[in-house]
Amino acid sequence: MSVVMKKHIVLIVISFSFLISFLSCADNSNESNKRIVFAIPSDVTTFSPLYAFNANEGNITELIYLGLVEHKWDGDIGDLTTSPMLAESWLWSDDSLSLTVELRNDVYWSDSVQFNAHDIVFTFDLYSDAKVNSRFYGQFKNFYTNDDLSINTQKSFEVLSPFKIKINFNKNSSPTLFDISYPLLPKHIFEKTPRDEMANAEVNLSPVGTGPYKLLSWEKNQFIKLVKNENSIFYNESIIPELIFKVVPDYNARINQLKNGEVDFADEIKSNDVDALIQNGNIKIESQKGRNYDYVGWNNIDPEKFANNKIEPNKFFGNKNVRKALSYAVNSKIILEEFLDNYGELAVGPIAPIFKNSINQDLEPVPFDLEKAKQILENEGWKDSNLNGTIDKNGIEFSFILNIPGGNPLRNYTSTIIKDNLKNIGIAVSIESVEPQVFWGNVFARKYDAWIAGWMVPIPLSLKPFWHSDLKNNPVNLTGYNNNEADILLEKTEKNISKEEMNNVYKEIQNMLYNDAPVTFLFWKDNITAYNKKINGVSIDPLGVIHKCWNWSISN
Hints:
By secondary structure, the protein is α+β, with helices and mostly antiparallel strands. The protein is built from 16 helices and 21 strands.
């Protein structure tokens, strides 16, 4: 072979290699404009609404499964508005105890089977079945139910046609559209699995839904890929073709991948990273007033007595005046300013400021006032009788363990501030960090005297499960708070009353909680979200950071 021929061959190879490389880069560039990569801190365990407990699972299942109605957040009124989704229309009976729903006849599951009224009956039967033990179990008290809390489907549902259903509610109920706003499941898929095997069934990992997206692939602990569902009522040519949820457990890695474009979207950004992300030039920052608050939990009841099925006041925190003194002694403002850079606001109760008509505007955050705290404690008999620096009463020193979940820098910082604050009024605090799963198990078992945690306010508002003194039926009243007057008001929130009256009841409840101080409310935290500027149409609201992302678009 001649030297000239060899040179030509080399040039052809180089040119071909360059072309392949160029096309590859072009393809990658084009592909990046056809998908959004979300960074998530942990993998999912299910794609089924039956068992989707955490935020990641909830976000993904919302894209796969739809309900009869959809809710939108109206920031002007601080409340939800409701419109049809798989329902076409509905009509309440004169006594508001039954609802006739006309269904869309153009809805198909992602496997091309048509959706119909029997899917609705099956879904509610499945959700309420004690054997299934779904995350919604026990939430159907407005329906006709059996002794095991499952829905009596014969009394509660009348299928009038494949696309028309009548839903009946029991005579003592006050139903709303929220009673029917559950993600609906395909009967033809789930009915093949025995109810007592449902929790671990393969069907939970192979979703068939009516939503705008369907599952294409899942590499455990790496990524989840959703693609647009051509059968969905939300399908159109402009919908973003792919959504990838990339598992990036390390927070700093998520930040770095945002900066270099490996991921396009991440939430729960720390305030001290905001400036650096903005300076990147390709990243937008949005801060949403949240419905997550941090608090110090004071166990109002004695943990040891409770373990033996007895309810007695906690020796430290059973007195509301003592609890109020502790609230005066905690400097939550400095935590908000120094750790959160004021991305949030001080809390006065369990109703987020986003609920504009329900929040009690007359209540002010409890001021940081050590002298007032000392005076209240002294009035309640807590004095340093032996001059050792710790106040005591009846021979008991005011010394306790403050429990926090491990691996949370905010909780570490907050607990240190509180320990120092309380030391200044003669209270000895030791901090104990516990693995999160163990921590929450102990909190729900009411084993701790005191702890720091966060909580998310549900939408629509629901206070009774968290503050009603009937602990058997309200297990998330974690402090064992007990106030008979509050119970009456809390029960009223589950009645069918006007919006105005409901808001007035909420304000009264907030006032009682403010005065009784079952916990020390610290602050509401803003949710800071960062995303690539190529994404258009992002509208983050209290319903979620990727709520209705099928309406987003990507710039070329």
